Records
---
Amino acid sequence: MAGHVARTVAQYLLVLFAAISLNFALPRLAPGDAVDYLLPPEQAGSLTPEQRTQVLSQFGLDEPLATQFGDYLSGLARGDLLFSVRYGRPVTELLAERVGWSALLVGGAVLLSTVIGAVLGFRSAWRRGTSRDAGTLTGVMLVDSLPPFFVGMVLILVFSVQLDLFPIFGALPTVDTSGPALVGEVIRRSVLPLVTLTLAYIGPVYLVARSALVSELQEDYVLMAEAKGLSDRQVRRHAERNALLPLSTVTLIGLGALVGGAAVVETVFSYPGLGRLIYEAVLARDYAVLQGAFLLLAIGVIVANFVNDLLYPLLDPRVRRPRAATA
Amino acid sequence: MTAPAPLSAVDVPEPPPAPIAAVAAKASLARRLGGLGAGLLLFLVLVALFAPLIARHDPDLPSGLPYESPSLAHPFGTNDVGQDLFAQLVFGTRVSLTIATLSALVALGVGLTVALLAGYHRGRVEAALMRLVDLILAFPFMVLVIVLAAFFGRGLLTTVVILAGVIWARPARVLRSQVLKVREYQHVVGARAMGASTSRCICRHVVPRIAPLAAAQFVRAANIAVLLEASLSFLGLGDPNRVSWGTMLYFANARNAFLTDAWLWWILPPGLALTAAILGFAFLGYAIEELADPRLARAAPRHSRRGARRPPAVTPAEGAHAGMVLEVRDLSVEYLADPPVRAVDGVSFSVGPGRVLGLVGESGSGKSTLVMALLGLLRPPGRVVAGNATVNGRELGRLHRAAVARVRGREIGFIPQNAMNALNPAYTVHHQVTEAAALTRDLSAARQRATEVLELVGIPAPRHRAYPHELSGGMRQRVVIAMAVTNEPSLLVADEPVTGLDVVTSARVLRLLLELRDRLGLSILLVSHDLPLVARVADDLLVMYGGRIVERGGAKAVTGAPAHPYTRQLLSAFPSLRGPRRRMTGLTSEPTDLTAPSAGCPFHPRCPDRGEACRCTHPPLVEVDVGHEAACLMRDQ
């Protein structure tokens, strides 16, 4: 068990290191001069070659790569993620402001899509081969094929523009509110992005839940459960208990997909999360922010996967209590 | 050591016949969706090919006034700078499909190469490659794509490289596990052993085998690529020189098309076109995967709902022999197919209280089907077509699910084939026995009963809270027996209860069953392919062949003076430790094919004693001695 944990930790540290290295390498591999990534475009364009060299040495970019990498790592350790050229503020500050909103959206969407996808998928599996199963399967695939930003735009059109039920923009009310009213307003403004993001992830959860339960229902223990006289509901619970295993993995790994989806959905709804920040950074060629956000998201997903690996044994007794030496 | 005859002592558990109707239903859904997907994609490909003929304007140049309403000249109107929206939609098909196809091709190429490399160079190379794959899969790929695109610029080729660079990991992972599986196939192992080179093995044997899966992965990759390309374009990171569907939506969003009436023409068409493309790939991918998946054959519906709703017959049995625990009359079971397979054909028998009835036959004789029918657990397309049964005088009619459900676990206990694997890995064994006990008592009494009955079958108290994987095979077997007898049923049905256990353990399990019979007053229906073993513990024997009973009688009478040639062959297929040495004969050919029933004796093609009459006359069961019957025409001659 301890060996397993150590190996898992080592693997994730490796992934983390790769993410950090990639982040370090990106601006250095990309076409053009590093100066283009350090200064706002209009400023960088007007520099003389001498000035460019000066900027490079100012940022330590004329040092050997190894030294640069060392500086970069020690900067990271101090939580220093450079400056945003657009906002003129440390990237760390910007990220701290935005990350909560994204966590709200992504966390809510993970929860909702998992519950809905699992319920639909299990029901389909139980009635597999029937027309209801076929209908649900087709319907879920259809919903899954709708691009999230398109869904977002249509929701805005219908519920904000035509019906005027929800505000189009932002997460916070424009007028000053506080207390319960503020909470209500925040919830109201997150409904549409949350629905959009949830719809985007029901499909994968549904498909995994369905195929997991279908294969569990073919196991011998299901026949035994029936034969010993259990009701259909009890039999179903037996199989679902085991079908939850692959589902937990999918849910947490899907975080990665959802985080990406959030980037697009937040843009549609002008929701002030990390995704929106990334979009703004892309438009403004604000590479420091882009790198910082990427690193933060990568770390988030890696941590989620790590937590999944640690939680998995709680669900599966075969991992939690490996076979004791019995005859 | 073993008998030279093909009827080996270690029987393969009878596989349930393929549920043909269900497979057909499932396959037809996959085929329908696949057809739909292919149709959608074909339509889009045609639009892309003939774009210049379909659209009358250049998508990139203003061809009208800003925000023109739909008209003949501009079917979808124009956008804010007067570009024709219909032309953009039509030409956008080209961009989306080109990028999707190219990215998917590159991703598949890289993925397949990695899969073959990893599958064929185990060890370091594989470990390194798979670590890389895991790494890429763990990253939030959409964000990765956005960041890469922001750094490396916007252009068709750049986009393709970036998308492929992110997508390839998934096909690599899926295909590698398939390569590993195919590598171990008999004929591939054989080819390797005969000195075929690695490249020849891969080209001739491996690649053709994984082709269907690779095709499915290609379609899936294209599916993801369409969405990723659209997302990039939607964020303004697409190719600036070509208008794609995502670009149209980008401009619609950036220029607040919602606030004008143009949204209907500006937002819906590209969004729906995207959905159509993604859906087309999704349907096609699903269909290819399902149709290429061998597991398909087992994904049958559990049971028909109609059967469950039918009101059970609970009329008192007419003409039932008083005092019989189980009585089966003229039971016939068919598997729905074309033509239907009659697996059990007009079987009648009864089990008296405290008796052990052995039901013997080789694989495919219909004994497992008979047992499943008795328990009401037949799955479609299997169904009882005639006959009925009573348990303790209680009429179960044609053994519909709902009727049998009332006695299952209460009056009939069941020990399935492979009982060792019949426990749920997620619950402790005590919990699983408690569940059964709770059918007839409240929870605390059930817990107590579970402890009691586990001890009765010889599981020591410290092991009661163990999970199944923590117990040995013999112990798991005992737990299953405990579950079956918890509610003191009057009948215990045991289907191959000792197959797969070693000799010592199987002797113990049989002894336990007999003990339980004495202590609980059980009757036992013991099903096995192993006639000598069954004869040791059974009071009476039934020998089944081709879905029919061919011989029945007291165990001593049947084994001492077998009256049917099939019984004689079953007996001589097993060597005896005592008694004179004799030649092992056994059965020489395959069991009779039930899909092609003949009018005559089902056994005659394999029968050493067959006569002319056997080919066309069906032999009835006739008494050969008191309480001993056999169905053989040649008895009288």
---
Amino acid sequence: MIIIPDCSVRSRPHSRTVLVTVAATALAAGCLLAALCLGQPSVGPAAALAAVTDPEHPLRVAVVEVRLPRALLGLVAGAGLGVAGLLLQDALRNPIAGPELLGVSSGATVVVAAIVVLGLGVPLALQPWLALGGALLAGALVLLAIGRTRDPAHVVLVGAAMSAACGGLVVAVVGLGTQGNVVVLFRYLLGSLAARGWPHLETVAPIVGAGLAGAWLLRRRIEALTLGDEVAAGLGVPVVRTRVAAVGLAALLAAAVAAACGPIAFVALLAPHLARRATGTTSTRRVLPLVAVAGGLLLVAADLAARRLLYPVEMPVGIATTLVGVPALLLLRRRRQPRPAVTG
Amino acid sequence: MTPSARAVAVVAGGLLAGLALVLAHLLTGRSDLPAGEVVRALVGRSEHPAYEVIVLDYRLPRVLVGLGAGALLAVSGVLVQAVVRNPLAEPATTGVGAGAALAVTGTLVLWPGHPLVYPAALLGALATGAVLYVVGRRSFAVAGVLLGAVLAAVTSLLLVVDSAPIGVVLRWLVGSLNARTPVDWAQLWPWLVVVLPVAWLLASRLNVWALGEPAAIGLGLRAGPFLAVVLLVAVAAAAAAIAAAGAVAFVGLVAPHVGRLLVGADHRLLVPVSAVLGAVLLSLADLAAFSVSVQLPGLATDVSGVPVGAVTALLGAPVLISLVRRESRR
């Protein structure tokens, strides 16, 4: 095991991280409970908990078969996305890296859209792995393109071009289908947690769990990467292997989520920034648990808002996360960096 | 061969190719017209009124709009890449396509079937460009992509509330030249006449700007007004093209790239060469999209009438990869 000294740039007492993590966990639990209570019909927390424990409860189906898997999927998917964002941002030392801007999500979407629209009849359990193929391919191309540069503009441009290519492919795939498929396709271009049940959760949860475990094992090495390649190599960390592993894990997490929920943007970008801001540390291993919790919290809360705000119309959660995520990201980034003189 | 001689050769060759494309477009279509009839219909001497409608109202506008939109997208790409100083930028980077789509969607949701679509797209794209100039001074690339994401999300939200215009809007997002009419061409050509010369007039200043901001300012370029003008021209070109043909991807990325390979980075040559290349590229892709008709296993009907944007995306991906390779080697 490599021992790395505490290398947080702005080190604060560890207790703050613990405190914030506990508070975020409590908030996430509260959101989970709210997700069980609200809906048609809305019930109190006691009734919702009774429905979970009592198999004969009249609300059993609504709460346990519809609301519970959806909320849990939101937690799991959000945690996976948040950690994917953290892995990419720290391993690539790029504050704006995230699966949605690296083309990883759109690569997965192409595969999912092809499976859905062409009716290929691939079993649900296999879909995340096929989506992973698309995600890894798109992500590898983008990473190849980015090379050694850390200029956020360059990263964003390559990712945008890859997303455009994938978007064109998705539309080409849909063009192959019948006219009625257009609406179906549209649904797959938006991330959503609607109509997801236990099978989706059972598919995604093990992959996300494995991804989180991998990130936990790699946390010290990735933290070393944030200090720069030379320093990391000096500390005995295999730089290239660690980076490849981190990106692969991030692609796995993003692909699993995209296979079940479609492309949900900006949770992965936002969760690490929020976690770093809340704890005041940039240490990968310290913020890792909080990032997972924050991602889940963000997604469940966004889904709750997406369900209720325009009721009876339900907004796909991907829209809500984009509308909230972009301004939040701009705000978070604006305060951190001084304004450079050069445009580009 | 010097770059300028090569540029003349490319432009001449491109014009010839454009002429060949016009002929090819006029001769291909759903109905099989003999070449003689096509020529007679062109000069208005056909004995069959239906042939005149097919040639003059369907086929001719389609190829002309394709050529014009391709040229505008390519020039817009040159300008955007110059502003951002990154050869991977393209008109879509500015978010104007998303802005146009949002305006079109809003119009269709509020007034279904209303013929306001063209002005809506144009105004939406131009307004997005204005917003970008205000908010994006720090990094046009990042701001443009994020702006595009937000606009796309609002578009999706509108479509979730009212899903009737999905088909139309998706075709906008991808770009399609199907069913263009003489009206589309009439709305497009004035932009060509205005934007292309202005872009060419900006070329020598773009060369100065390419030296870097401090050097450009030292040489007497006023950065603020200059950027505003270039961005305005770039957005106007993209807006006109997108309003006519939809947000076709990669033409604005690939045409300047190929142009740079052929004549180098001098914008005085790059602007006209890219315009010609973009026109040929889009029209050629459209010919391919129009002619493709394949039977795939598992599908009931033949695949045909694919939007041209899907073809450019398919062709654009490998080009993107090669571009990226070159970039990473540097």
